[in-house]
Amino acid sequence: MKASSNFSPNFSNQEQRKRVLVYSSLLSLLGVNLLGTPALTLSLLTLAPAPCRAATDEEFDAGLAAYKTQHYQLAVDHFSKSIQAGNKTSAVFLYSGHCFANLNQLPRAYKTYEIVTTAFKGTPEATTAADLMNRISLRLGQATPTAAATTAAAAPAVKGAAPAPAGASTAATEGLLSRINVFPPCFGHPAVSAASINAAQQAVKALPKPLRKKLDDSDASIVLAPNMVDRWNDSLKDLNEESEELNMAELPGRIYGHEMCIYERAKRRGSNDLKEARPPLVIKLQVGNMCFQVLDEMMAISKDPACRKEWEADCNRVPDNMQAKLATFMKADEWGPRETCSELFGSMIGGHDDNTDDLYRYFPGTKKWLKAKMGL
């Protein structure tokens, strides 16, 4: 792409010239035409890393909204207009790469991420982009992954919101595995780790084949984010940090329809900081737990009278000194059996958390019935 013939900036050094070429390449990928817009090109010389959210940018906000509802081409269109209007943040470029990945335009996504690593060198966004380049390289069968992302090479198949699709074979990235979407961090948070991504993938792979096919053929998807506030930036101001109960930023996840949102870290109260990452076994259990809940909606598993019979018998045997601790799993409404079954299912595909041992001990009848029912 050639710049306007009447635009000939006086570069003070080679680095400035390189920056313009880098951004021109990226803008070309996005379909943004620089002809006749020298002011925008000049502004690229001072481009610096910026927060995840662009303030007072309606086109960026519209693009982000379209992205979150999986309208990726529409999102690209909005992001392009945002750039034309002068948006110089790392977010607009990184999200554009994510859109191309979700549209399965992998070479275009790779090039976009490659440019981000150059333009925002040394930033978390550059690290994320390098990771995604590695995953795309593996998916496309390229022999040498990018050096900056070798720590994530073991995580073979992720698509979307942070990692683009990757994997050693096409079969590895079909169905639900191809709809694992990892959101990049905001607020200076650490990115979702390769260990957590791998744990989510392993949970999906551990599903019995008939159950996995049901999820593969559905619109179910998995979202991994550092915390809820990284996924929903505006939710930060609505958190109740005075209640004794856990707020949404402290919970490990939540389901919206068939979208299973899992958060690697809990937020510290009174701060934007996050706690240590939840162990991979906990992430794996959460994925299995939520997969069961989506399947339960399709198959009414926990409402099966046989399930209810075993669950009630187990509840009747829980000693008094354990009833408060297991209250969530002993609710008399439909949520009691559902919570019990979803938690047991997550552990039976290889996950583990603070409830696992107690549930195995006090709900053996439910566990035995569920194991047979789910083909585990």
Describe what this molecule looks like in 3D.
This protein is mainly alpha-helical and 376 residues long. The chain has a domain at 300-374. The protein contains 16 helices and 4 strands. The protein has helices spanning 14-30, 38-44, 58-68, 72-84, 90-102, 106-119, 124-140, 194-205, 209-216, 228-231, 280-299, 305-317, 320-323, 335-348, 356-362, 364-374, and strands at 180-182, 221-225, 253-256, 259-263. The protein has a 4-stranded mixed beta sheet. Strand 3 and strand 4 form a beta hairpin. Helix 3 (58-68) packs antiparallel against helix 4 (72-84) and helix 14 packs across helix 16. The longest helix has 20 residues, at 280-299. The radius of gyration is 23 Å and the shape is elongated.
How far is the first residue's CA from the last residue's CA?
A: 56 Å
Please state the structural category: mainly alpha
Helix-strand topology string: HHHHHHHEHHEHEEHHHHHH
Order of the strands making up the biggest sheet: 1-2-4-3
Q: Percent of residues in beta strands? A: under 5%
Residues in helix, %: 40-55%
What is the rounded Rg? 23 Å
Number of helices: 16
Shape: elongated
Largest sheet: 4 strands, mixed
Query: Which regions contain 5 or more consecutive residues with pLDDT less than 50?
Result: 1-21, 32-55, 142-172
Q: What's the overall average pLDDT, rounded? A: 77
Strand tally? 4
